[in-house]
Design goal:
flat, two-stranded parallel ribbon, 50% helix, alpha/beta, 416 residues, single chain
Length: 416
């Protein structure tokens, strides 16, 4: 029988439980009306101009419902101006907002997701603070907005509307409340994260990362986007790949014209199944499960025509089994193709993992895994700090990353 004392509520040696998060259920100033007219927009822009401090910015899209990634609601908040919910459908040019806050720091969460759609409507920041990236650099275990807000501010945000169809009109009030609350906490969150980064000596790291996001600009279009079709690896021949490409292009054109997410026009799985079945005629295509529905019965000529075009392609026009890339081969082939490179990569990864643990920064934020692979596969001619540092900078590494990792990579390239 144990004689050790049992912790009680009065025992000050017992661990203290964190107080429960306070749910945020409504904007502190009330839900503002949606800005839908030019007059309202100009009035709010003037309020933003007269406000103080950073401006919190967020955007809602209709991913999975609409074809593109355009913004269907833009939320802003600045001290002294309050929250603005701007509908960019009737107001597709927000340059008046841009003029009001162009020189102000913008606070966003996961800025890479929102900056492209904001740029389409005239909103381009000159300075940003990305709370998601800051949370990564600060070593927080979870970096989603809700998790970071709860961890640092003690509030819980509503969940459930991030994946909604924001092209819906009118927007439900509960969605608008959710959207308003997202920007209500961003500036306070920015201040809390900035304090942590300053304490950890990482403020300069964050500044360089934020500048890199802005300097990168919009992402380049992906080569051969049809290869991202879910299930494509189940297709074995170039002929099948040609049929899939033709079917993907037909679906993409139809989705673009109708402004519907491609997966809602025809699921990836249906395209792969159709290619694998290789139907001889429209009737055979209609025997496949997804194609029996009313919508696809009306489009059967479109789908079968695409399959037939892919089937009829000359051999020289069929796509290769895999896209020719400009980078190294898959890592699982390195040991056979270049054992020395495999050794270099193993050493580099081990050293970077140690840095990641020491500084409490995810290893992918310590240094881009793709850049590590490229340098280990094809080391610079000068395998010293100057040569490796130059290769890192040429590959887009920030100066803080170069200073932190160059010794580890020099050691790695010197092993073999």
């Amino acid at each position: 029988m144990s004689t050790e004392p049992t912790p009680s509520a009065a025992d000050d040696t017992a661990p203290e439980a964190s107080p429960p998060a306070v749910p945020l259920l409504a904007p502190r100033d009330g839900l503002p009306p949606v800005i839908e007219t030019s007059t309202q927009l100009v009035e709010y822009a003037e309020a933003l101009r007269a406000g103080t401090g950073p401006v919190a910015v967020d955007a809602e899209r209709a991913s999975g419902y609409r074809y593109g990634q355009r913004a269907y609601l833009v939320q802003l908040r600045r001290r002294g101006a309050g929250t603005g919910l701007v509908d960019p459908v009737p107001l597709p040019d927000l340059s008046v907002i841009q003029g009001a806050v162009a020189d102000v720091e913008w606070v966003l969460h996961a800025a890479n997701q929102d900056l492209p759609c904001l740029a389409e409507i005239g909103l381009v920041p000159g300075r940003i603070f990305d709370t998601e990236l800051a949370a990564r650099l600060a070593g927080l275990p979870r970096v989603g907005l809700g998790a970071v807000v709860e961890s640092l501010l003690g509030f819980s945000l509503q969940k459930g509307h991030s994946a909604a169809d924001w092209s819906t009109r009118p927007l439900p009030e509960e969605w608008l409340v959710y959207a308003a609350l997202d920007v209500e906490v961003l500036v306070d969150l920015r201040d809390a994260l900035a304090a942590i980064l300053e304490e950890q000596g990482k403020s300069e790291w964050a500044r360089q990362e934020f500048e890199a996001i802005l300097a990168a600009g919009p992402p380049a279009p992906k080569a051969d986007p049809w290869r991202r079709t879910s299930g494509v690896h189940g297709l074995r021949s170039r002929r099948q790949l040609g049929m899939l490409r033709s079917l993907w292009e037909a679906r993409d054109e139809l989705a673009r014209r109708r402004d519907i997410a491609p997966g809602r026009v025809l699921p990836d799985s249906a395209m792969v199944s159709a290619v694998q079945a290789d139907p001889a005629n429209e009737g055979a295509l209609l025997e496949l499960p997804v194609f029996r529905g009313r919508a696809n019965r009306r489009l059967v000529a479109t789908w079968f025509g695409a399959i037939a075009r892919g089937r009829a392609l000359p051999e020289a026009e069929l796509p290769p089994h895999s896209r020719t890339g400009d980078g190294p081969p898959p890592v699982n082939r390195w040991a056979d193709r270049d054992p020395a490179a495999a050794t270099r990569l193993q050493v580099a990864r081990a050293g970077l993992a140690e840095l990641s643990e020491k500084h409490a920064v995810p290893v992918e934020n310590v240094l881009s895994p793709d850049l590590v692979r490229r340098i280990m596969w094809s080391p610079p001619e000068a395998r010293d700090a100057a040569g490796v540092g130059a290769a890192l900078r040429a590959g887009g590494a920030r100066e803080w990353q170069v200073e932190l990792t160059v010794a580890v990579l020099v050691d790695a390239v010197g092993r073999a």
